[in-house]
Amino acid sequence: MKKLTARILLTPAVGSLFLWMIVPLVMSIYFSVIRYNLMSPGEEEFIGLMNYHFFVTDPGFWPAVLNTFILIGAVIGITLVLGIALALLVNDKFPGQSLVRILLISPFFVMPAVNALLWKHMMMNPIYGVLAHVWHFFGLQPVNWLESFPLLSVIIMVSWQWLPFACLIFITSLQSMDREQLEAARMDGANYVQQFRYMYLPHLSRSVAVVIMIEMIFLLSVFAEIFTTTGGGPGFESTNIAFMIYVQGLMNFDVGVASAGGLFAVILANIASIFLIRIIGKNLEK
Amino acid sequence: MIKPLFWVRTAAAWIVALLIFFPIFWLGLTAFKTELQAISVPPHLFFTPTLENFVEVQERSDYLLYAKNSILTSVFSTLLGLLIAAPAAYAMAFFQTKRTKDLLVWMLSTKMMPAVGVLIPVYVVFQKYGLLDTKLGLTIIFTMSNLPIMVWMLYSYFKDIPREILEAARMDGASVFAEFRHVVLPLGVGGLASTALLCLVLSWNESFWSLNLSSANAGTLATLIASYSSPEGLFWAKLSAASLMAIAPIIVFGWFCQKQLVQGLTFGAVK
C-alpha cells in the first residue's frame, strides 16, 4: 500500500523527466545517422557515421572544445578565488554591511542577454565604453575588447554574473562557523594564513563543491552571452560547443550534423557529471 | 589597535561592492539620458533625467506584452513544477528505498544534459505540434529544465522534517494526504517558497530556449532584449531603458529573497 502510494506520487516527475530525456535523445540519435538538411527536404537518407565525421573534422570543432573547457575552468576558478576572498571581506560586521551585500549579489539576477549587451556597449566599447574612459584616464590606448580578446571578454561577462552567486553561498556558509573555535584559535596565536588554512577552508569545502557543481551545470551551455556579443568570432575564437551546435542546426539548417554535435555534448556533459555527482553525493551525505 | 585595520576593511568592502554593482548603476543612469548624452565623451554624470526612452521602448516594441509573457511563463512553470516535484520529493523523503538515491542522481543528471544537445529534436517536435512561439511551449520547457533542481531542493527540505512528527500523525490514523496536507506542507512551506523563488528567477532569466523557440507571440523579455542586439538597436539610451525594465523587477525581488534563495540554490546543503 505504502509502496503503491509512493509510486503514484513519483510517477509524474519520473515520467515527465524520462520523456524529456529519452525522446530528444532517440530523435538525436536517429537524426545523427541520416542526411537531414532543412534546406533540401526529401533528400534524407541513411549515411551512417558521416555526420559525426563532419562534426569532428569541422575546423571549428577543436577550438570549440578547447574554448568550452577554458570558459568553464576560468569562470569557476575566478569565482571560487574571488568569491571566497569577498565573502571573508564582508563576513565580519561593519557599517553598511547589508547594503554592501545587496550590491554584491545583484549581478546574479541580471539576465544573460542584458549582461551581454551591457558589457558589449556600455563597458567594453572602445570609443564610448566606460573601460575606454578608464584606459584614457591612465593615458593608455583603449582596448577593443570583443575583437582583440573575444574569449576573455566572454569570461569577464560570465564571471561577473556568477561571482555574486559563489560569494552569496560562501557568505552563508561562513555564518554558520563556530565563533568560539575561531576565537580560541586567535587566542592561541594563529595568524590569518593559519586560520584560513585550518579553519575557514575546511569549513568552506562543502560549499565549494556545491558551487562547482551548479556552475558546471549552467556554464556548459553558455549561449546568450556569445550569441549577443561576438557571434562566436572572430573566426572561432569565442565559439563554444553550445554555440557551434546552434550554428550548425539553426543557421546552416544541417540537422544531421547538429544532432551528432548534440550527442557529443551530451556525452561530454555526462562524463563531467559522473565525477561531479560522485563528489557532491559524498559531500551531501555528511 | 584593531581600529585602522577595521576601517581599511570596511573601505575595501565598499569599494569592491560598488565596483561590482557599477555596470548596473551605469545602465540605470544611461536609461534616463537622451541618446546624445548617452554617447557623449566624456560621459555626463549630471544631467536632467528624461523618461522618453521608456515611452519609446513601449511604443516601438510593446514592452508590456513581453513583460506579460515573462510573468506568465515563469509563474506557471513554477506552479506546474511544484505540482510535479512536491509529491515526488515527498515520496522520496518519507518512503525511502534502496533505489531512492539512484533516482535522485538520475534526475539531476537530466539537468546536466546541455540544452543545445536537445534543441533540434525539441524544435522539431514543437514545430510538429504547433508549440513554437507559444506560452504553453515555453512553460513546458521551463518546467522541465527546472524540475530536477526543484525535486532535489524539496527533497532536502522534506528530509529535514523530524520523522517523529510524521509517525505521530500516522499513529493517529492520518491518511497519506492528510499527513501531506497537515504536517508536511506547513513544515515544508519555507522549502516550497525557496524552491518557487529560485524557479521564478531562473525562468525569468532563461535565455537559451526563449531566444530559440519564441519570437513575436510568446517572446519573453530575454527575446526582446536580444532583438536590440541588431545594428538598428544601437540606440544606447533606449537599449538601457529596455534592459532596465527587464531586470529591475527580478533584481528587487532577489534583494528581498536572498536568504531563501541561498538555501534553495544549495539544496539546503549549506546553512
UniProtKB/TrEMBL annotation, chain A:
It is a multi-pass membrane protein. It comes from the Bacteria. The keyword Chloroplast does not apply. The keyword Transmembrane helix applies. Residues 65-276 form the ABC transmembrane type-1 domain. InterPro entries: MetI-like, MetI-like_sf. PROSITE patterns: ABC_TM1. Keywords: Cell membrane, Membrane, Transmembrane, Transmembrane helix, Transport. It is found in: Cell membrane. The chain crosses the membrane at residues 12-33, 69-90, 102-119, 149-171, 207-227, 257-280. Belongs to the binding-protein-dependent transport system permease family. This is Sugar ABC transporter permease. It comes from Leeia speluncae. The lineage of its organism: Bacteria, Pseudomonadati, Pseudomonadota, Betaproteobacteria, Neisseriales.
UniProtKB/TrEMBL annotation, chain B:
Its main location: membrane. Residues 67-257 form the ABC transmembrane type-1 domain. Pfam families: BPD_transp_1. InterPro entries: BP-dep_ABC_trans_perm, MetI-like, MetI-like_sf. The keyword Manganese does not apply. Keywords: Cell membrane, Membrane, Transmembrane, Transmembrane helix, Transport. It is a multi-pass membrane protein. Signal peptide: none annotated. Gene3D superfamilies: MetI-like. It comes from the Bacteria. The keyword Transport applies. It is found in: Cell membrane. The chain crosses the membrane at residues 12-32, 71-91, 103-126, 138-158, 179-204, 235-257. PANTHER family: INNER MEMBRANE ABC TRANSPORTER PERMEASE PROTEIN YCJP, MALTOSE TRANSPORT SYSTEM PERMEASE-RELATED. Belongs to the binding-protein-dependent transport system permease family. This is Carbohydrate ABC transporter permease. It comes from Leeia speluncae.
